[in-house]
Amino acid sequence: MPMTEKPNYYIKAAKDFVENDQLNEAVIYAAYALEIAEKKKDIKNAQDYLRRFYERTTDINLETIAASEAASQTFENDASAAHKATIVNAYIALDKYSKILKRTDPEKFKPTKKKDPALEFEINRYNTQITEAKATLKEFEQQAAEWHYNQGAELVGSADIASNKKAAKHFRYSYEYVPSFKDAEAQYADARKKGTTRLGVTNFEWSGYEHGNAGASLSNKVIENLVNNASKYEFFEAINREQLDRILDEQQLSVSGLMDESTTVELGNISGVNVILVGQISSCGVDRQRLDARRERFEKSVVVRKEKYINEKGKEKTRNIYGTVYATGVINEKTSSATLTANFMVIDVKTGAVVLAGEVSGQQSWNYTWLSSASGDERAVPSSYKKKEVQFPMEESLLNDALSQAALEVYNKLAPFATEASL
Predict the structure, then answer these.
(1) Quick one: which of 225, 247, 152 has its CA closest to 190?
(2) What DSSP string runs through 35-92?
(3) Cα 53 from Cα 47, distance rounded (Å)
(4) Which residue(s) pair with 289 in the sheet?
(5) Are residues 65 and 49 in contact, defined by beta-carbon separation less than 8 angstroms?
(6) 368: phi then psi, degrees, rounded to nearest 5
(7) Which residue, among 33, 52, 12, 32, has the nearest Cα to 97 in the 3D structure?
(8) Distance (Å, rounded) from C-alpha 203 to C-alpha 198?
(9) How many CB atoms lie within 10 A of CB 82?
C-alpha cells in the first residue's frame, strides 16, 4: 500500500479499525503512521496505538494459529482446509506489520515524553512460517478437492434432481479448491444440467378481441426477465419458447385450460420440463379520453415602461416600472392509459400440484395539455403551456410498458422459488 497520506490519516484509519474490531488492520496502519511520522505529535499518536494493540494483536494471531493447528492435525473435511487457510492469513498479518516496524527508524521507538515508556517489543518476521503454512494448505486443498470429487461421484448415478444438485456442488467445490482438478468441471456441468429445475413458460391466455398478442408478449417478457437474471440461480432456468413448444408438440400435449387445476394431471407426461408457468390475462385495454376544454385566467407582473431618475450621487439612471397584465386561455387536455391484470400458476409437472400462484398488474399513463387559444396580453400566458395539439401515443406502445410492469411482477414473485431451487 503506497503511503501517500499524512500520518494523521493512518492514525484515524487505525482508530476506525479498532472500533470495528479489525485489530490487524489497526496495527498495520499505526505502523505505517510511525514509519512516516516526523513531528513528535504524530510519532506519539502512532506509538500510543502500538502500545495498546501490538502485543494484544500478536497474541491473538499466535493463539489463533495454535488453535487452528490443533483442530487440523489431519484432513477431515472443509473445516480442516479452512483452519489451514486461517493459519496462512494469521501469519501473513503478523508478517505485514512486523515488516513495516522492522524497516522503521529505531529512533521512532524512543518516547517523545519522559513519562512515556519506549516501544520495547519483540519484532519477528514470519517468512518461513508463511511458506510452510502455504505448503500445508495446498496439501489440504488437494485432499479437499479429492474428497469432494469422490462425494460427487457417489451421487451422480441418481436420477433425482436433489442428488444431482448435491453432486454438482461437490464437483464445483473440487475445482474451486484445485483449478482443473481431474474432470471436475465437466462433471459439474453434467450434474448441474441434471440437477437444474427447468421452468417452461406458456403463452398467457387472453380471450379479448383487441391486443390479441398480449398473452404472447407477456410470456416473452417474463422469460426475458428470467434470462437476464439467470446468473443469480445456479440450479434454476427458464427454457425458451421454442424448446417448450417442441416438447409439447412431440408429446401431443396442450396447455390450454391448465388454469383449471383439475386438468393439471395431463402435465405428468411432460419430459424436459420440471415446472410450467401458465397464466391468464383477465383484463387488458387502452383508454383514451379528451377532457372538456376549460377557460383559465392568467396574470403576471411585467415591465410596462421605463423612467429616468436622478440617484443619490446626482447621476441620471433608468429604472423599470412594473405592472400586472392579464390574459384568458382555453386549456385542453388528453389522457390515455393502458392497464393489464393477469393471474398465473406454476405447476409441478410430475404431481400436478400448484407450487406458486399469484395475480399481477401493470399500468402506464400519458397525458398532454395545451393552450388552443388565448386573449388579452400574451405576456401573462405561462410559457410552460404548449400551443399545439399532438396525437395520442400508439396504443401498443403504452400497452407494452404496462406488460413490462406486469412481467416484472411475475418475475419478482418467481424469484424466491428460483432461489429456493438453487440452494
Answers:
(1) 152
(2) HH--SHHHHHHHHHHHHHHHHHHHHHHHHHHHHHHHHTSS--SHHHHHHHHHHHHHHH
(3) 10
(4) 335
(5) no
(6) -145, 130
(7) 32
(8) 17
(9) 16
> CA angle, 162 as apex, 156 and 166 as ends, to 5°?
55
Q: At what angle do helices 78-103 and 40-71 cross, to 10 degrees?
A: 150
Pair type for strands 275-310 and 316-348:
antiparallel
pLDDT digits over 112-143, tens only? 888 888 888 889 999 999 999 999 999 999 99
Name the stretches of the chain with pLDDT < 50. 1-2, 265
Question: For residue 116, what pLDDT is reported?
Answer: 81
Query: Distance (Å, rounded) from C-alpha 335 to C-alpha 384?
Result: 18
Q: CA–CA separation, 98 vs 121, rounded Å? A: 11
Q: Is the dihedral of CA 350, 355, 357, 362 positive or negative?
A: negative
3-state DSSP assignment of residue 366: strand
CA angle 269, 273, 274 (to 5 degrees): 90
Q: Which long-range contacts (CB under 8 A, 24 or more apart) does 157-164 make?
A: 161/194, 161/195, 161/196, 161/197, 161/235, 161/274, 162/195, 163/195, 164/191, 164/192, 164/194, 164/195
In a 10 Å sphere around its CB, with 0-12 CB exposed, 13-18 middle and 19+ buried, how is residue 98 labelled?
buried
Q: Which residues of 28-47 are buried (b: 16+ CB within 10 A; e: fewer)?
A: bbbbbbbbbbeeeebbebbb
Distance between CA atoms of residues 6 and 29, nearest Å: 12
CA angle 22, 23, 27 (to 5 degrees): 125
Angle between helices 395-422 and 214-228 (to 10 degrees): 40
Asked if 233 and 419 count as a contact pair (C-beta separation under 8 A), the reply is: yes
Rounded-to-integer distance, Cα 395 and Cα 71, Å: 69
Contact 395, 338 (CB under 8 A): yes
Residue pointed to by grid coordinates 398480449: 214
Burial class (CB in 10 A: 0-12, 13-18, 19+), 216: middle
